[in-house]
Each structure stands twice: as C-alpha cells, then as structure tokens.
Design brief:
The protein is α+β, with helices and mostly antiparallel strands and about 475 residues long. Helices cover about 30% and strands about 25% of the residues. It contains ten helices and 27 strands. It has helices at about 5-25, 45-60, 125-140, 160-170, 240-245, 280-290, 295-305, 355-370, 390-405, 445-465; strands at about 65-70, 75-80, 85-90, 110, 115, 145, 150-155, 175-180, 180-185, 185-190, 190-200, 210-215, 230-235, 250-255, 255-265, 320, 325, 330, 335-340, 340-350, 375-380, 385, 410, 425, 430, 445, 465. The chain is elongated and about 80 Å long. The mean pLDDT is about 95.
Length: about 475
C-alpha cells in the first residue's frame, strides 16, 4: 500500500453514509428499458431517464459539471485538459425475475451481514458510484488534474448499446479508459460473441406414428442457459410415453396428451459449464424414443449429432482454443416449437483466432446440411490487450499499490463497455471468490469489495490523470 492509501480511506470513511444514501436512491429506481414510455429525451423509457436525472442531481450537489445526451447517456467530469480519461459504467439493469426468489425486496438496498443486496448493486450501480466517489475523493484532496476525467454513464448496456453509439457521435474518445463492470484483477480479454437463432418450419408428422410433438415452450431469453422446459405430446399410448420420460421433473396425462416439465440448473449463457441445461435432460429422453417422425425425429437427430452435452461447439466445428484467452463456449438459451415452427437460440463465445465471419461460415454449413436457417441477434469481435500496453501496466500498478498483490490479467466471456472504445478494459469490481449473483435473484456486493474497489479506483485515477 502506498502513502495515499490512508488519505483515500479517511475521505471514504467521511463519505460512507452519503455513499449508502446515494446507492439506496439509485437501487430504488427500477431502471429497466420500457418501450411503452419512450419519448424525446427518454429513448429507453421513463425509469432510465429518472435515474439519469437522479445522478445529475447528485453531481450538482457535489459541484461537478455534468451533461446529458438526449437521455441516451450522460457524463460527469472534472479537469480542463483536452486529453480525456474515461470511466464507463451503466445505470440500466436487467429485470428482477420472480420476487419470491429474493431474500429481500430487489429495489430496496438491504444490508445483511457483510453484503449489500438489491438489483444493480453489482451490475452496475454500485460500481458506477464507486468510480464517481473515487473522482470526488481525489478532487476533494486537492490533487492537480492534468487530464480531464469523465465518468460516462449509459442507459442501454443491457439491451441495444444505442447509448454508446449516440454518446460517441457527440464526444471524443478518451485516450485511455476502464469500465467498472467486470472483475479484478484486470480483464484484458473479452471473448467474441455471436448470438442468434436457428429456425425451420417442420411438416406435421404422419398419423401412423404413436408419439407426436405438439409444443415446446421455454422462457425466451438470451442471458442464461435454458432452465425450464415445457413439452406437450399427443400419443396413442400415453402411459407408455410417460415411462420413457425418465428425465422429466413432472409429467401430466390429460387424455391422449402428455405434458412434461424439465428443469435444469441456472447458469449464465456465457458460462454453460456452471449449470445444467434443461434441454439436455429432454434430449436424453428424446433419444431413447423409437418410431418417431416429423419434428420429434428432427430434434432427435439435431441433439444426438450436434447439441447434447456439447458446451464448446465442437460438433458444429466451432471449437477453438487460444493459449491466452482460453476456449470457446456454446450454449442454448431457449427452444420453442409452436405451430410447427422450430426455434433454437444459440450463444457462441470465442477467443482471438476466430472471427464472426469464420463462425458464420461454419453456421451456414451446419444449416445447409440440416435444412435450417439462422439469424444473428448480436455480434462482437474479441477484445484483447497486450499486457505491455501503457493502460494495462498503469492498472497493474494501481492494483498493486492498494492491495500489495501483483495482478494477473484474465479473459472473460462477458460483454462490457470496453468494446465501445479503442483503449479500454474492464477493471473490477468483483474479486476472485466473490459470488455477486449477477443477473440472478439476490444480486449482492460485499461491503469490503465495494470499499476496496473505491480505493483502487482512487489510485487508478491518480496515476492516469493527476500530477503526484
């Protein structure tokens, strides 16, 4: 720890109560994109505009200069230089899901033990405030800034990223930046992303076959692997079919219809190895079936040959491993079959060495062989920074000065605002061993994690933007 640590710590202790009050106000705003209330100045709806206004009020209270860019994004800045250091965070959140799965109200900041709970406390409201308070602490300690620092806050990170597109049409790129929307030590690599959907219209099966597929339903989302699946069959021998559905959590017989429910173990779609896909359980039962036709036969072939238990994309020819960034992941977030229309979502993450164009060619070949079509929902090329870069070395020094530990660089499958800039990486707030429940019920951040992150951000801004 360097000589400035005590100064940062004393100032943070002075602001601790105010920090908690500010965070409570931000968590209380359900800042989820709302298409119904979109209007000029609120392109993502009223709630996201409300949280921008709340953050503007906080900055005005503290005598910072802030600017709002048509409700897409805002920044808070300090310093007069033409050279800009950027800190990119976001104030929008994902939906809370089922409130019954939460220990506490997701929109009431709650301290329980060593943790703060609430939607957005880890992703990304508390980290945004951590960066803001770090800038505030340095200013109040009278450090002389030789570069302008901007805390840039977006409103559509969890959806379309229009916020950053709009913001950088009106503002110059920072010369260096970091995003407090990842992990410590330093995320110098983010895997490429290709999210999309396979689809096909399948003819109705012949009546001579004993078991026919009527419908498959799962939650149409892309952030997680498929956790729950509801499958409806029509069968000439419903009891016989029920005996085949060994992997189902529950089966219900209603005349000639059987409804089977499958349950998996929830995991982020970028980390399919950390959970169990409900589709894999269904596909095991499907593969055991004989005398199937039409949609059941189509699904059986697809899962047998390509999808079952393959979380790396090997069977589609998509697997690649990089010494520095690791290997590919491939997951299925949802499966739908309605009105004879088959829809299978996919989420592919890949290291450098692969490109979206190469991956699309592989998907084209797969679809051609199996008479499928596909559309792309979202795509990003991989992000990678060499450890010798000035940005990485400065972040390493800041981390070491505060923690006493030499930080390693890591690669993640996630998507941060780092991809919106030419010279930016994700940097905190989550430390190894933390379990923040990002995007899940009971999202949380450890108080010690939040305070240590603020210390590190103080030192980072000092190194990047001030004269010692």
């Amino acid at each position: 720890m360097n000589n400035y640590f005590r100064l940062y710590q004393e100032k943070l202790h002075f602001y601790e109560e105010q920090l908690m009050e500010d965070l409570a106000e931000l968590v209380a705003i359900r800042s989820i994109r709302n298409e119904v209330t979109i209007k000029p100045g609120a392109p993502f709806g009223n709630e996201i505009r409300e949280i921008f206004d709340r953050m503007t009020a906080i900055s005005e209270r503290d005598d910072f200069k802030s600017s709002n860019f048509d409700g897409y994004a805002m920044h808070i800045e300090h310093g007069d230089s033409n050279e800009i250091i950027g800190i990119l965070a976001h104030l929008d959140i994902v939906p809370e899901g089922e409130k019954k799965d939460w220990l506490f109200d997701p929109f009431t900041l709650t301290r329980h033990g060593d943790y703060l709970y609430g939607r957005g406390v880890n992703d990304d409201k508390a980290p945004a405030l951590a960066a803001y308070y770090a800038l505030k602490i340095l200013r109040d300690l009278d450090f002389e800034f030789n570069r302008k620092v901007r805390v840039i806050l977006g409103g559509a990170e969890e959806t379309t990223w229009e916020c950053m597109d709009h913001y950088f049409k009106h503002n110059a790129q920072p010369i260096m930046a970091f995003s407090p929307d990842g992990d410590f030590p330093i995320v110098h690599g983010e895997k490429g992303v290709l999210q999309g959907t396979f689809f096909q219209q399948i003819d109705s099966p012949a009546a001579a076959y004993p078991h026919n597929l009527i419908e498959i339903e799962s939650e149409k989302q892309r952030g997680f692997i498929c956790e729950r699946l509801r499958v409806v069959f029509e069968s000439s021998y419903p009891m016989e079919l029920k005996d085949l559905l060994e992997e189902a959590e529950e089966t219900v017989i209603a005349g000639s219809y059987i409804i089977a429910f499958y349950k998996g173990d929830k995991a982020l779609s970028r980390n399919p190895h950390k959970g169990e896909n409900a589709l894999f359980r269904f596909s095991k039962d499907l593969i055991a079936m004989e005398n199937v036709n039409g949609s059941l036969l189509k699904l059986k072939k697809l899962f047998m040959k390509y999808f079952l238990n393959d979380i790396n994309g090997r069977n589609l020819g998509l697997f690649l491993e990089d010494k520095e960034m690791g290997g590919t992941t491939f997951s299925i977030p949802y499966l739908l079959f309605q009105n004879n229309e088959l829809e299978i979502a996919f989420d592919y993450r890949y290291p450098k060495g692969q490109t979206t164009e190469k991956a699309k060619r592989k998907l084209d070949n797969f679809c051609e062989k199996n008479k499928l079509n596909f559309t792309i929902y979202r795509e990003f090329e991989p992000l990678y920074f060499h450890q010798e870069s000035q940005l990485i070395q400065t972040l390493q020094l800041a981390y070491r000065n505060i923690t006493g530990n030499t930080p390693e660089c890591i690669t993640k499958g996630g998507i941060s605002y780092s991809r919106a800039l030419q010279n930016c990486v994700a940097f905190g707030p989550t430390f190894p061993g933390d379990i923040p429940n990002t995007h899940k019920p009971n999202e949380r951040i450890k108080l010690q994690t939040l305070y240590k992150a603020i210390m590190i951000y103080c030192e980072t801004i000092r190194l990047l933007a001030t004269k010692s």
